[in-house]
Structure formats: structure tokens, C-alpha cells
Amino acid sequence: MILASHILSGAVIGENINNPYIVAISAVAVHFLLDFVPHGDYLDKKSKFQEFWKVALDLLSGLGIVFAILYFQKADFTFHQIQNTAIGIFFSLLPDGLTLLYWKMGMKFLGPIYRFHQKLHLIHYPDFAPEREFRLKNNLGDVFVSFLSIFILIIF
Ligand SMILES: [Zn+2]
Fold first, then answer.
1. How far is the CA of 51 from the centre of ligand 1 (A)?
2. 112 alpha carbon – ligand 1 mean position (Å)
3. CA 5, 58, 46: angle at the middle one, nearest 5?
4. What is the per-residue pLDDT across 41-72, written as a single tens digit (0 to 9) for each?
5. N or C terminus: which one in the chain shows less Cβ crowding within 10 Å?
6. What residues contact residue 5 under an 8 Å CB cut-off, 6+ apart?
7. How far is the CA of 132 from the centre of ligand 1 (A)?
8. How far is 68 from 72, CA to CA, in rounded Å?
9. pTM of the full predicted structure?
10. Distance from the alpha carbon of residue 99 to the mean position of ligand 1, in angstroms
């Protein structure tokens, strides 16, 4: 899924669970669970470094939305809650961060995690299948998860 979906769901986990260790474990677990939902990705194995502006845009929109909600809605947020939200976001992004380290930095010891993560994406459709393209109809899961997360962040 896109990073914004992971960031927003990670923020929901951080905001609603008190124990930071449970936040971290749940955020990683939810990342893998969300990636199991069929979805298209805007990067694939042929992506060039020049396409990484998409990653920056994706990161900034997710973080920007969380920041705006915290700033305008949660003025009474305690340090502990902000810390947990940050932990939730960090661990919800970690699997994709590790993929990047394996893929572009050549950290080969991350191979087993990389392959497990990759396999989740290939269960439904192989690489370069039309269903793996980044399209609205392929990414309704992203739309749903992001809007549901924003709703929960604002309401609770
Ligand atoms: Zn992922």
C-alpha cells in the first residue's frame, strides 16, 4: 500500500494504544496485513531512482495530514500520546524502509524479511500484472484505509 495509508493507520494505532511496545508490534503486524490486501504500487522492480519523488510526496502527504490533525484537533495531547503516535508511524513504515535498505543499499541480511514482504504482494497477482498497476480501481483499499484512519483520528 502507499506510505500515506501506512502512516495514517500507524497514527491510529499509536493514538489508541497506551503501551508503546504493543504499538510497535501492532504497527508492523498491521503493515503486513494491509499489504496482503490486493493493491497496485507506484514503484516496481524496474523503478529508477528518479521516480523516488513519488515516495517523498507520499511521505509528506501522510505526515502532513497527521500533523494537521494533531495540531488543530489534539491541542490537549500529552507528550506520551504524541510519542506513541510517532512510534506507531515509525513502525508502520519500517517494513517498507527495510525493503528500501535491502533493495537500494544492498543490505543482504534483510533478505528473509524482504522476501516475506514481497510474497504478500505476489499472493494475488504476479509482478507487472495489470492489477498491480497504481490505479484508482486497484487502490480502493488505500482510499478506504486512509479515509477510515483520518475519520478515526479526528473523531477519537
Ligand atoms: Zn509494505
1. 17
2. 14
3. 105
4. 998 888 888 888 999 999 999 999 999 999 99
5. C
6. 34, 62, 141, 142, 145, 146, 149
7. 13
8. 6
9. 0.93
10. 8
